[in-house]
Design brief:
Elements (H helix, E strand, L loop, with lengths): L2 H12 L12 E8 L4 E7 L12 H11 L2 E10 L10 H8 L6 E5 L5 E5 H4 L11
Parallel strand pairs: 3-4
Antiparallel strand pairs: 1-2, 1-3, 4-5
């Protein structure tokens, strides 16, 4: 799948966001692979809650969907926000994604579809993952 196609999917996923408090809609599109080598795209959006800590970001929604279906090898994710600035993952999402691939390619997009490619380990310097727990 081409990067622009993945960004377009993230922009589409953003339309389902529930963000009545921040008014900042985020969509994510994650390419993941299962143990059989099958690739699949998982979409997610942010879902806010009146009890703010109960909300979940689009990236973690997509990642949780992937893991719940047996897809634990994350290959690439596109994230699109609702401003003209590119949307990068928050700190919690960076750590959450790091668990599955510290070298994950992250396409950070604006509401207009402009995007920049980044590597997760550059966004989360000195992160820790499964290898840190041994």
């Amino acid at each position: 799948m081409k990067d622009l196609e993945l960004v377009e999917l993230a922009l589409q996923a953003r339309k389902n966001a529930y963000a009545p408090y921040s008014k900042y809609n985020v969509g994510a599109a994650l390419i993941a692979e299962n143990d059989d080598g099958e690739e699949k795209v998982f979409l997610g959006c942010n879902v806010e809650n009146a009890s703010y800590p109960c909300g979940i970001c689009g990236e973690r929604t997509a990642a949780s969907k992937a893991v719940s279906e047996g897809f634990k090898r994350f290959k690439k994710i596109a994230i699109a926000g609702s401003s003209e600035e590119i949307c990068t993952p928050c700190g919690i999402c960076r750590q959450f994604l790091y668990e599955f691939n510290k070298n994950l390619t992250v396409l950070c997009a604006s509401s207009k579809g402009n995007f920049e490619e980044k590597k997760l380990n550059d966004l989360l310097m000195c992160g820790f993952g499964p290898e840190s727990m041994q």
